[in-house]
Amino acid sequence: MRKTITGTGGMLLIQTLKDAGVEYIFTNPGSAETGIFAALSEDGDQRLVVAKHEGLVAAMADGYHRMSGKVGVIIAHVMGGSYQLAGQLFNSQVAGSSLLVIAGDWASELQDYRGLAPFPGLSQAESMRPLMKDARCAYQVIANPAAITVATIRALREATTAPTGPVYLSISAELLHTEGLEAQIGEEAQYRIERPGPARAQTVETIARRLGEAKCPLVMFGDDVWREGAQAEAVRLAEVLEAPVVSTRQIFANFPNRHPLYCGMYPTSQEFEKVTGLKPDLLFLVGCQGVHGSVGEPYVMQIGPNPLLMGRHYPLDVAAQCELRETLHNLSEALTRLHASDRIATWARQRAKVRAYARLLIEREEGVVREHEGDTIVHPALLEAHLAEVMPRNSVMVQESSTARTTLLPFGYQDMAWTRSGGGSLGFGVGAAIGAKIAVGRERPVVLHLGDGALGYSAAGFWTMARYNTAILTIVSNNESYQVVRTNWAKEMPDSKMVRDGKYPGLYLSAPEVDYVALAGSQGVAGESVKTLKELEPALRRGVDQIRQNRPYLIDVAVAREGVGADSTWYQDWKL
Ligand SMILES: Cc1ncc(C[n+]2csc(CCOP(=O)(O)OP(=O)(O)O)c2C)c(N)n1
Ligand SMILES: [Mg+2]
Q1: CA 485 to centroid of ligand 1, rounded, Å
Q2: CA of 570 to the centre of ligand 2 (A)
Q3: Burial of 150 (0-12, 13-18, 19+ CB in 10 A)
Q4: Ligand 1 centroid vs 202 CA: distance in angstroms?
Q5: What ligand 1 atom has the least distance to the C-alpha of 400?
Q6: Fewer C-beta within 10 Å: the chain N or C terminus?
Q7: Closest ligand 1 atom, residue 424 Cα
Q8: Angle of the 201-213 helix axis to the 325-338 helix axis, nearest 10
């Protein structure tokens, strides 16, 4: 049913969002958006979440989206503010997160080069376009108030339709505060388009036959498995096939990493072939965007709701755009129906060593833990082992630490949820954890594990944590450096003077040392620092207890630098 609504442009917008079920609005406000905030003060229904930098705002909206499945709605500032969203919108774009960014537009026919505003040659919506889900997804409303509701619904529809992603909506600032405007909305209308259904029976049979005939099918579960809640079905399929499961760069824990068939990252190593005596002869990609790099297996099949990267980089033998829960269920069922029980039994027998390989990965990591359990300073493996022990199984972990180790942490189905930025643009963690906590609510613990470097990009976020009491346990893996960059530099130029002499320009972060406990404390989040391994476990238990009592808490853990250049504290020492 259509209904006519009236008011300022801001009111038309807020009413449309309200009708679409938007509960939270993430923002860093400015005066081009006067009409939106004026409307919010008249209609107090939506909860505003304020952060003090746009990067934090975008990351909050994304974290909220990832854990709630709902669209993360952002009110950003005109051009100068919108540009500050960019690094985190890049992450959202790579991750395919459904975000709606709305900003006032000061473009004027009377005045060029107004502060903060777009100017001739720089149109606001156009300049945000490359960061959106695709070229269609940056809109502007200039003059017609009726377009405010239409464009908002269009944007919500685009953000949530596969391939999902961020959408930008620029609305004339003047229209936003002009009174007496009129527009139509569909009362309780849905903007969501029903997703593709399960794969056709014939496709399922083809896939089941090929999987059954392969000597060693490699299965890769991507982020749409998590998004569609198909993790149980993924586990079942792997177990029916007794197939090795691998992952690629992904943003969710789609398959439990402590499952006895989980074999680490794709491609599998030489060691996999040595230990198992198997050479993967088929790759089955389920709900993945695709693999990074090339594909080595002679036969490749791919299914999932998002066709964006299907068959783009390598030929696919079978490909289907479909939902995953029912399709995976049907596939497990077809495997047992189409293949005789003695054949099914041979899969487990032939591939018995896959479990041995998976176990080896865990045992190796446990070996690293044992090797360092007598150290004074906390080795990253010890932090991983202790976190695995103290964090409740229903926790959500937001990770933004490049050198943190996670092999022992139980992520995935019936275990901890996990997410990372996606695009690698630092500054994601603090905001994303806040958004995730708002999505999962008071009962479910959220832990933010981030590097000292990562924290620097979002250091103003503790204020938001305190303001809304999002009780997150923040663990800073503090190695006083951009450590992973040293490792990468050394890989690229092993024979350089930089690597030989351990002089890595720009990577040492101490001198002066940053007091992260004080940083959080100054914004209203309590914490403590851990300098030795002995202090670690009691501190983590106190941290878990703090969040159980619904208080955010930070633990700054001094961790050992691992790998190349670990000893170097050199920096180009000059002062004015
Ligand atoms: C916005 C942005 N700027 C720069 C980089 C390059 N970069 C990649 S990792 C990294 C260091 C991360 O340091 P930290 O979070 O302390 O992790 P560590 O490797 O020390 O464990 C940097 C600077 C980036 N990824 N994103
Ligand atoms: Mg670091």
Answers
A1: 7
A2: 15
A3: middle
A4: 47
A5: 15
A6: C
A7: 25
A8: 60
- List pocket residues of ligand 1, CB cut-off 6 Å: 87, 401-403, 424-427, 451-454, 477, 479, 481-485
Amino acid at 504: Y
Q: Which two tokens stand for residue 371?
A: 């090797």
User: Which ligand sits closest to the CA of 453?
Assistant: 1
Per-residue pLDDT of the chain (576 residues; tens, 9 = 90+): 788 999 999 999 999 999 999 999 999 999 999 999 999 999 878 999 999 999 999 999 999 999 999 999 999 999 999 999 999 999 999 999 999 999 999 988 888 888 888 888 889 999 999 999 988 899 999 999 999 999 999 999 999 998 999 999 999 999 999 999 999 988 777 788 888 999 999 999 999 999 999 999 999 999 999 999 999 999 999 999 999 999 998 999 999 999 999 999 999 999 999 999 999 999 999 999 877 778 889 999 999 999 888 888 888 999 999 999 999 999 999 999 999 999 999 999 999 999 999 999 999 999 999 999 999 999 999 999 999 999 999 999 999 998 999 999 999 999 999 999 999 999 999 999 999 999 999 999 999 999 999 999 999 999 999 999 999 999 999 999 999 999 999 999 999 999 999 999 999 999 999 999 999 999 999 999 999 999 999 999 999 999 999 999 999 999 999 888 888 999 999 999
What is d(CA 535, CA 446) in angstroms, rounded to the nearest whole number?
22
Take residue 529 and report the two structure tokens written for it.
């620092």
Answer yes or no: pTM beyond 0.85: yes
Structure tokens at 288: 């993945």
> Which is the closest atom of ligand 1 to the Cα of 425?
26
State the amino acid at position 211 in one-letter form. L
Helix locations, 312-411, DSSP H:
325-338, 341-350, 352-371, 380-390
How close is the Cα of 489 to the center of ligand 1, in Å? 13
Separation between Cα atoms, residue 419 and residue 413, nearest integer Å: 14
**Contact 76/85 with Cβ under 8 angstroms?**
yes
